[in-house]
Design brief:
The protein has a seven-stranded parallel sheet, sandwiched between helices. Strands 4-5 form a two-stranded antiparallel sheet. It has nine helices and nine strands. The N and C termini lie far apart (about 70 Å). The protein is globular. The protein is of the alpha/beta class. Helix 3 runs parallel beside helix 4 and helix 3 crosses helix 8. The protein has a single domain, classed as Rossmann fold (3-Layer(aba) Sandwich).
């Protein structure tokens, strides 16, 4: 009996060491230096690999720990906006105003590209604060970080980029945009609604007329009873840059926190 037990133990040991090795096991080793260059450009129609996604997640954390350890204020909006447009100038003004007051604590972060993204980064940099960008690849080439970013990363995975822009935000600002911006608004709304993300004020920046069609869609969803009657209260409106800053201050109780910090 003792001899049998010894042989059994030996066989089990060999099975664990050799016979039961998982051929699909994947070990990924990442270093901060891996984030000094863009993520892989994934060919159109191909799924990002586990290594692609792991690298994106890791590098987003590297940038956040380095430049926004307390979180950031994310700005979404059209890549097609240009200087002189209401949406561009409002975003630039908001980013500058916010950065002057709170940019060292909660820096501005955008998708790092042109249009509204450029406006946000430009306002933040002109105000003398950090100006972050999480970019990715579009079409035939990549969307490199615009000239007004001070730190950032280019993601391999489009979806992971969106997730990190939302999940690390203490507040979210949306300027008018296209399909991508609508996706970002609804992903943010869904995560806040389902508590998959800690609460962050989600603010639609600009005149009411720019958001009229979105709220008509929200009302239609309420009429169909596919969303709760009070879900639209998670969407806040700011007609001006100053109003957007004020809403975030109130929701995050920043004036109270500043007073406590000075008192201590």
């Amino acid at each position: 009996m003792i001899k049998y037990s010894f042989v059994t133990v030996m066989l089990l040991g060999l099975a664990l060491l050799v016979g039961c090795h998982d051929p699909d096991a994947l070990q990924i080793t990442l270093r901060a230096s891996d984030c000094d260059h863009p993520g892989r450009k994934v060919p159109d129609g191909e799924l990002p690999t586990p290594t692609d996604v792991a690298t994106d997640v890791y590098c987003a954390q590297v940038v956040t720990r380095r430049s926004a350890p307390k979180g950031f204020v994310t700005i979404f909006g059209s890549a097609r906006a240009r200087p002189g447009m209401i949406s561009y100038e409002l975003t630039r003004e908001f980013a500058a105003t916010w950065t002057k007051k709170y940019g060292q604590r909660y820096p501005i972060l955008t998708g790092g590209g042109p249009g509204i993204m450029e406006a946000g980064n430009k306002g933040a940099k002109e105000a003398g604060g950090p100006s972050l960008g999480f970019s990715t690849y579009f079409g035939k080439g990549n969307e490199p970080l615009n000239a007004f970013t001070t730190d950032g990363y280019v993601f391999a995975s489009f979806a992971q980029r969106e997730a990190d822009m939302i999940d690390g935000a203490v507040a979210l600002i949306a300027a008018p945009g296209g399909v991508g911006t609508e996706w970002e608004i609804f992903e943010s709304l869904a995560k806040i609604q389902t508590h998959k993300k800690s609460y962050a004020p989600l603010i639609l920046l600009g005149p009411d007329m720019m958001w009229e069609s979105l709220f008509k869609r929200i009302e239609a969803l309420k009429a169909m009873k596919t969303i709760s009657a009070d879900d639209d209260q998670l969407l806040l409106r700011a007609r001006t840059a100053a109003e957007a800053v004020q809403i975030i201050e109130q929701r995050l109780q920043l004036n109270e926190k500043s007073a406590l910090e000075k008192a201590s």
